[in-house]
Design a protein that fits this description.
Blueprint lengths: L1 H6 L12 H4 L4 E6 L7 H8 L2 E6 L13 H5 L6 H9 L9 E2 L4 H11 L5 E2 L18 H4 L2 E5 L8 E2 L6 E2 L1 H16 L7 E5 L2 H10 L6 E4 L8 E7 L15 H8 L2 E9 L1 H4 L3 H12 L3 E3 L8
Parallel strand pairs: 1-2, 3-4, 5-11, 5-12, 8-9, 8-10, 10-11
Antiparallel strand pairs: 6-7
Helix pairs in contact: 8-9
């Protein structure tokens, strides 16, 4: 082990894996902590003691550290070192990567304005790419347009508590999502190029039961962090007369969901419920502005 470390120019480890029994008194010229916005601050202190320079790489506008203890969360353990330093020093210590290589510019635009001061730009290689540009994919309204918001307001698609559980699901919305997925697959999109995301674990389980398609991925927002697919469908679940949106109010989590798609983003949700939160009101207005807003009544199988 000593010989390997002495010969190495780069050492890769977890933040908590820098054990003195293994590393001894070694110091490093430079430490890079990747996904630093998802690490608790104490987790970053360990490598800090061994380096002369530090780079924290990550996006503090997306998922924060996972902290299960409410007592720890109350003590700000959910605040990463990166987020705290950005809040304190701002542009004096930050460098924003301004070119992204994943999304069609229309998919990117809303998050760029909401979270990144409008500075994010799409590289020319992805700026206008669409589903219909993929080999074997039909050219139709579903595959030509990069955005689609499907509004279920007034359709009676009410959320429900999960039987014997604490999560929420929306069976009518799930069936509507299934129809959208079926349209994509019939147009020639490969199942492995499609993902369905829901913020509630009960909805994820329900969708997995209804969409048993080999290669198709269905997961929570957190489970899809760092991932991407050609087409992504988001089922927002919440639909109630009180306008309650629960932890959908965590807009950083929604920023993750909105930025997973490369060529097509479809959102299914109830605008009457969602618009009680200004963020979602702006999101719906954006879809309207680019003529990507539709209602469930326009669907072939409208209720």
């Amino acid at each position: 082990m000593e010989r390997i470390q002495d010969a190495a120019t780069v050492l890769c480890a977890t933040t908590t894996g820098l054990d003195s029994e293994i590393l001894g008194q070694r110091r490093f010229d430079l430490t890079v902590i990747d996904e630093a916005a998802q690490s608790t601050e104490p987790g970053c202190w360990i490598p800090l003691t061994r380096c002369d320079r530090l780079i924290l790489a990550g996006d503090h506008c997306q998922l924060p550290p996972t902290v299960l203890s409410s007592e720890a969360a109350a003590a700000d353990f959910g605040l990463s070192l990166q987020e705290r330093l950005v809040a304190r020093y701002g542009t004096a210590v930050t460098r924003r990567l301004k070119v992204q290589y994943r999304m069609h510019e229309a998919i990117m635009a809303f998050s760029a304005l909401e979270f990144y001061a409008g500075e994010l730009k799409a590289d020319s290689s992805v700026r206008e790419h669409r589903l219909c540009d993929l080999p074997g994919v039909e050219v139709n309204a579903m595959t030509e347009q990069p955005l689609h918001f499907l509004d279920t307001a007034g359709a009676g698609f009410e959320e429900q508590p999960e039987p014997d559980g604490e999560s929420l699901l929306n069976p009518d919305e799930a069936r509507l999502v299934c129809r959208q997925v079926t349209q994509l697959l019939h147009a020639g999109i490969k199942p492995a190029d499609v993902a369905v995301i829901a913020p509630y674990s009960a909805q994820v389980r329900l969708l997995r039961e209804q969409l048993q398609v080999a290669g198709l991925e269905i997961d929570s927002v957190d489970g899809f962090q760092g991932r991407e697919k050609e087409a992504v469908l988001i089922s927002l679940v919440r639909s109630n007369s009180e306008g309650k949106i629960g932890f959908l109010a965590d807009i950083r989590r929604m920023n993750v969901a909105l930025t997973r798609a490369r060529r097509k983003l479809i959102i299914v949700g109830d605008s009457a419920t969602l618009s009680n939160e200004p963020f979602y009101e702006r999101l719906i207005r954006y879809f309207e502005s680019v003529e990507a807003y539709h209602t469930v009544w326009e669907e072939p199988e409208a209720p």
